[in-house]
Amino acid sequence: QLQLVESGGGLVQPGGSLRLSCAAPGVILDNYAIGWFRQAPGKEREGVSCISVTRDTDYAEAVKGRFRTQRGSAKNTVYLQMNSLKPEDTAVYYCAAGLGGSGYAYWGQGTQVTVSS
Question: In this predicted structure, what is the pLDDT of residue 100?
Answer without folding.
Answer: 73
